[in-house]
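Message: I would love a firmer grasp of how sequence relates to backbone shape in proteins. Thank you; the sequence and its tokens follow:
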Amino acid sequence: LDASDEDQDDDGVNAGVANIGDSGFLMLRQAPASGELTEAAMQMVLRSREQQHGWNYPYQLVNLPESLSAKLPQGHRLDSAADCEKYSLKVQPGDLLLLYSDGLIDNLHEEEILSIVNDAVRADLVKS
């Protein structure tokens, strides 16, 4: 994640995110209020895309010792940071950028994640 004051304008702050493989991010923003219970409801604005070579074969960064690298088939190319997907986001006050590893999305649906986030945000508002 990269953002600075120089990237700010009236619409928010421009933030950059680089992502590779099956880790990722969700950008969440407060939904328009339509009642007391939904006042803190967050909605998904953007989700990163998973990068896979094939089923269950995500892009991965690896630093192999030379002894293992020598055992790779000739011409085999390892994934590198240059393979990452880059995103430019317009972040507004109150937005939540949820960064996660594959374990989160493998075990929870987006609706479940939003429910957990919304419960936490509501609980925080009640404390305030």
